[in-house]
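Schema walkthrough. Field components (list of strings):
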Amino acid sequence: MHATTNMLFEVKDLEVTYLQGDQREPVLKDVSFYMEQNETVALLGQSGSGKSTLAKAMTGMLPHSARVTSGSLTIGTEQVANLTDTSTPWQRIRGRRIAMLYQDPRQALNPLMKIKDNFRELLQDHQLASSRDYLQISEQWLYALNFQDAKRVLECYPFQLSGGMCQRVCLALALCLKPSVLIADEPTSALDIVNQREVLDVLKTVQKQYGLTLLMITHDLAVANSIGDRVLILNKGKIVEEGNTKKVFSKPQDSYTKQLLSARSLLSESPQRKSVSFQSKQKLLEIKGLEKQFQQKQVLTNIDLTLHRHEIMGILGQSGCGKSTLARCVMGLETINSGQMMYKGTDLSKLNNKKRRAMSKHIQLVFQEARGSLHPGRTALQIVMEPLHYLHLGNRKERQSLAEAFLKEVGISSDMHARKPPQLSTGQCQRIAIARALVLRPEVLICDEAVSALDMHVQAQILKLLQQLHQKFEFAILMISHDIRVLRSFCHTIAVIDQGRFCEVRPANALEKESKNAYTKKLFHSALEMEKGLSL
Amino acid sequence: MLLIFSRKILEALLTLGLATSILFILIRLAPGDPVAIMIGQSSDVASSNTERYEQKLLELRSEFGLNQTIFQQYFIWMKQLILFDLGDSIHTGRSVMTEIADRLPATILLSVAALFIQIVLGILLGVLSALKFGRFFDHLTRFLCVLFASTPGFVIGLVLLSTFAVTFSTYEINTEAKLSRLWLPALTLGMIGAPQWIRTIRANMLTEFGQPYISSAVSRGLKYRRIVEHAFKNTLLPIVTMTGLSLTTLISGAVVIESIFSWPGIGKYALDSILLKDYPVIQGYALLMIALVIVIHLVIEIVYSFIDPRIHRKGEENVKKDY
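Field assembly_structure (string):
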């Protein structure tokens, strides 16, 4: 590798295999890279490319089934670990020299421990504070990470803080040991756009302030673009391209990088951009003054919404704003406190269970967690046949042929019909979930963050598929998402929801220009800031 | 908080009333007549002519109020209950309250001691075998768990009794409930129940070890002991639930072991009364057990909310505001 004078961190010839069945499958092949002091390097790859394995190998945290066959780790001028050596004193390296940030910040903190106790044991274990002065030190670190109310935060449990705040707490915990290298493993992918922005800003600031060398592991081009000085592209365990971020993104050399960039541009294409008027079309779903409370907490306030035949409407908002609750209310999974939900003149909230069930033929829901929403013990074909069976539609043969037809429609070939969800990829699972929803030929399809958990190119594939199916079967879609990019490219109309209220409803192509709402602007600002420089 | 608490108490009373009522009816619907059994045992009436037998039957039935309708009987029982009177045993004529009060402490003592042994064994071996996952110790513990879980309790009891009372003569055999006689039945019950604890704690520890907060703690370079503590604290929740469930099972189900070790607990007394269809005793015993289960579950819920902050802070206002 290019040894430079400022080189701080170097991984050489790293190879890792996993035991799969009886065989050892290589997961990382000949991975070598370096990072300079104060540099931010983005490691970009899709799920299954070996990103997290790389992070684990660098901190000696690989599971038992993994084996490092070669590789060394150098920090500064000292080779701190021969990665094949199992007797490496990792406890002295972890935290002190290499710190880590994890994907889901709420899960990265012990749910039963107050924030202050996390600091106490960390500082005591590393002999940086006694039981008397740890509070003071913890407070200082929290203030350094933009917490205005550090004293109160220290007394909180993780569940009392937002995702962004938890991630900043994790960052404070990582920084208080003054490491020279910080590995952030998808630190923002579990957060919505505003929290994402918040964490990335803080990361940038502390990286400069404390002279950190930052390795940002991500699957998101926008994140890599907004933070990385250099970018490494990882595909199937190999680094296929590396270089200056702007250069790589503007002139990609490797075919895989090109593929990634094209998947993204596909998302940003705007086939729905032309303004379409739906006023003349039939109203399918009409919600008026919907209110929903959980215990004493108001979750949805005065929601008015009209969905016309063939319309694609986006519901945009941060996590916790009530988007999913709205979907669940429409599906009858939650009872509403007041208001009307009319489907072609029938009030959904007044139906009894039997009629409600019959209504599921007309309104269907696709969930975010594709794999989790499918029965793990049933085959793809059985899963798609199930709703037909429940609603007593057709005989067995007819059901099977219909299910087969719809599986073909979503691009699941017949050799995969007998496979069960654990044997399928997440993208395939989401296709099956879509087939299961569409096999009833519903007139309204609700997609609750249906593509958020997917890799970029799979996201693009699924959205393209939904568009094709929408053209063919002419159903209306209620697309719930926190991703402006997805909604902007996919929807006719976008409704922005903040703290359970609709701020505004506008045509997708006009939202950015015409919106005067501060919240909408904040969402757009956060999203666009990250995309700057991505040649789209 | 006060509202939640009073609601819980109300719920508990309702459950108690409903459960005892159902039991009251079921006991009377079951075949067999306590008076007939009683007369059958005293040879002078049974051997004489049927007319006298029938007459005696009627006499005794009216004496114990059994000639009244079920509802009348239920009403009388309720009236007694309000005055904290469980009635008198048909068989012995003694007050049920006194009989139970005489025997219950011995059973509770035995159950608590057994539970203590179960928890200690469970935590110790469960945590250790999770830490030694896949190694010899883990395999050995698992083997022993299967062995003890599949051996009937009375076999373990008899083996221990013959070993310590006969072979080594270290255990005295009589019917007294004293501390020097407690350890062997407690150990037996402990060994019967421990496998369940060991397996649950081991499985929970392994699940917790796979959680992201553990990886995160490891990556911060915390000491090994701390990391184990993290995982253990999170396995405490199911342990609390299991404590309650085990305690109720022990108190109500220790009858076999009590018989083997001649431990003067309530189990044997209840079993005898059931065979004799001694209604007041069965009712009193059932009422007590149901009340005990309800109280234990109430305590579990309260303890739960102290261990898991997510439960008792649920109602607090949203504190996720920083800007």
